[in-house]
């Protein structure tokens, strides 16, 4: 229902002005427009029936043949060609069919059903005369191309005839590749190919004949410049070894120009049936009858020569009459009770020859499988023999290596025994040297220990001497401080003697007070000197160890003795003697002189 509504919304008479104006259909809506132009039905049930028949044997080696393509494209190509081979047995015998389907598979990578129906519809209409003599060349179709060139390009046709250039040279390469050779490579080439097929699908089925003729017409200048000897070589170079680098719109324009210029007698429209959709009501006759040209006598002589003889034509037409192929019957059976529409059968091919070729191909495939089985068995046998031979060689080589290893080991053992003997002798010598060295080290250790002990004792003695020296220095310092204290006490006593009054507050004579003070001071000095002597005695130092201290002590004793002696004199004599200087002053002066 949707396709019917879409066909009513986008009829051809509304699409053709768009194509004439812009030269191509919008890329965004191209798939929908093609579906409308080809009247695709989307019959998934019939397509599933073809898929369920499995992969056709003709697609078995496509992975190796198309190894450079991505896996999805190869998978779609295998599925489509397999369904085409099940739909029409002749397609399984066409070698160039994968090359024809490949551009469509690249442009429709996701919709397998639309891809199959598109290719099948194109084969039924635009390519309806390509397989009349399959697997031979389409002689009638090539004759139509010659008729157009003879009518519109007589000079070019005369060049072809003069140089013996057959139509297969300049027409078949374009047909087998679905006109990919007319386009350049890359993304631009894909766009050019899509534009070309926009025009092919929008025009009547015979438009492809004019495209083939237009390609030769565009190369007319290059071809006519070729010499007589190199004419065929130039044509092969143009049509086999290079793709067209010109604008596709020029090719389409030239094709329309040839289509308008072609006379009615040479026009291929008389030999083509009108467009027939792939899906037809089952009550109507399917497209199985081979269409017989009615105006063959009015065609050019070269086209008449290319037709098959009358007897062969009748035989081929007898085998091409209206009975559905087995694939068509299977499709009809799958739709029985559920729908009244099914895929039309393609019958414009030599049924008897195709059946013979299918039988031969099946026999050859069976023979190939048998030979492959034998080859596998022979390969296994060869592999076993090779493995056995390899094992024997390996065993022999292993034995030789084992013997060589044994010899090497014996030699190594002998060398090792000699080395061990030498090592034993060296070990004994080394032990002797070690004992001698041990004795030397023992003596060195003992001497070092003695030296170390002596050093330690020497250090201890030095430390003790240093200690004694520090103590002696400290004692000398203490003596000096004691002398200073004595002098200070002497001065203090003298001062006290001068300042202290009499106990009875009775004024005493000055000489008496002075004499008493001297006596007390002398007694204290004697006690101090005795204490100093005892200190020297306790330290074990002689009295003459410190000459200064000894002289001071002697002077102080002398002063103390004088003071004591003076106290025993009678008072009268004391008063008669002249007043002398106190001993404390003498001691202080002497001490100052010593300093």
Give a description of the structure:
- This protein is mainly alpha-helical.
- Among the domains are: 184 residues, Cyclin A, domain 1, CATH 1.10.472; 98 residues, no CATH class.
- 70% of the residues lie in helices and 1% in strands.
- It is built from 25 helices and two strands.
- A two-stranded antiparallel ribbon has the order 1-2.
- Helix 9 packs across helix 10, helix 9 packs across helix 14 and helix 22 packs antiparallel against helix 23.
- The radius of gyration is 70 Å and the shape is elongated.
- The N and C termini lie far apart (146 Å).
- The C terminus is likely disordered.
| Quaternary structure state of the chains depicted | single chain
CATH architecture of the domain at 126-275 and 289-322: Orthogonal Bundle
In the CATH hierarchy, what is the class of the domain at 126-275 and 289-322? Answer: Mainly Alpha
**What is the helical fraction, as a range of percent?**
over 70%
Radius of gyration: 70 Å
Uncertain ranges: 282-340, 567-595
**H/E element string?**
HHHHHHHHHHHHHHHHHEHHHEHHHHH
Total DSSP helices: 25
Silhouette: elongated
Protein name: Rab-GAP TBC domain-containing protein
Keywords: Coiled coil, Repeat, WD repeat
Organism: Anopheles melas
Coiled coil: 395-426
């Amino acid at each position: 229902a949707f396709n019917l509504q879409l066909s009513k919304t986008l009829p051809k008479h509304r699409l053709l002005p768009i194509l004439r104006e812009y030269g191509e259909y919008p890329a965004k809506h191209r798939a929908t427009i093609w579906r409308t132009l080809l009247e695709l039905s989307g019959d998934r049930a019939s397509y599933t029936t073809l898929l369920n028949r499995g992969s056709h044997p003709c697609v078995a080696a496509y992975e190796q043949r198309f190894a450079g393509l991505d896996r999805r494209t190869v998978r779609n190509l295998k599925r489509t060609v397999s369904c085409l081979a099940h739909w029409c047995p002749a397609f399984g015998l066409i070698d160039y069919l994968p090359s024809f389907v490949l551009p469509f598979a690249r442009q429709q990578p996701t919709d397998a059903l639309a891809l199959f129906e598109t290719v099948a519809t194109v084969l039924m209409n635009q390519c309806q005369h390509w397989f009349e003599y399959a697997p031979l060349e389409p002689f009638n179709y090539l004759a139509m191309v010659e008729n157009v060139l003879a009518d519109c390009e007589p000079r070019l046709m005369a060049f072809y005839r003069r140089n013996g250039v057959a139509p297969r040279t300049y027409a078949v390469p374009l047909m087998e590749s679905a006109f990919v050779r007319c386009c350049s490579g890359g993304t631009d080439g894909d766009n050019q190919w899509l534009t070309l097929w926009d025009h092919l699908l929008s025009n009547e089925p015979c438009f492809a004949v004019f495209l083939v003729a237009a390609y030769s017409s565009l190369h007319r200048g290059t071809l006519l410049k070729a010499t007589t000897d190199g004419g065929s070589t130039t044509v092969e170079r143009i049509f086999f070894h290079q793709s067209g680098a010109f604008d596709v719109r020029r090719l389409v324009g030239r094709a329309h120009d040839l289509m308008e210029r072609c006379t009615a007698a040479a026009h291929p429209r008389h030999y083509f049936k009108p467009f027939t959709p792939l899906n037809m009501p089952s009550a109507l006759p399917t497209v199985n009858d081979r269409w017989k040209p009615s105006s063959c006598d009015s065609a050019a002589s070269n086209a008449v020569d290319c037709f098959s003889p009358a007897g062969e034509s009748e035989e081929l037409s007898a085998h091409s009459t209206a009975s559905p192929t087995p694939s068509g019957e299977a499709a009809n059976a799958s739709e029985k009770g559920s729908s009244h529409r099914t895929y039309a059968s393609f019958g414009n091919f030599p049924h008897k020859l195709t059946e013979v070729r299918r039988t031969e191909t099946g026999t050859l495939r069976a023979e190939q499988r048998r030979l492959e089985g034998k080859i596998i068995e022979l390969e296994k046998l060869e592999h076993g023999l090779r493995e056995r031979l390899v094992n024997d060689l390996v065993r022999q080589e292993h034995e030789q290596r084992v013997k060589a290893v044994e010899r090497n080991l014996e030699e190594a053992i002998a060398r090792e025994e000699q080395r061990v003997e030498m090592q034993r002798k060296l070990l004994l010598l080394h032990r002797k040297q070690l004992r001698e060295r041990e004795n030397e080290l023992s003596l060195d250790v003992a001497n070092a220990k003695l030296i170390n002990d002596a050093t330690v004792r020497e250090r201890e003695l030095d430390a003790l001497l240093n200690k004694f020296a520090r103590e002696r220095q400290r004692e000398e310092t203490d003596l000096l401080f004691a002398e200073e204290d004595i002098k200070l006490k002497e001065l203090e006593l003298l001062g006290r003697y001068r300042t202290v009054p009499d106990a009875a507050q009775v004024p005493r004579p000055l000489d008496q007070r002075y004499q008493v003070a001297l006596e007390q001071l002398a007694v204290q000095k004697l006690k101090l000197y005795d204490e100093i002597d005892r200190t020297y005695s306790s330290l074990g130092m002689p009295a003459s160890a410190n000459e200064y201290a000894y002289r001071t002590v002697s002077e102080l004793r002398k002063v103390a003795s004088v003071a004591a002696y003076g106290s025993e004199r009678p008072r009268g004599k004391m008063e008669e003697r002249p007043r002398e200087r106190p001993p404390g002053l003498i001691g202080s002066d002497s001490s100052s002189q010593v300093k």
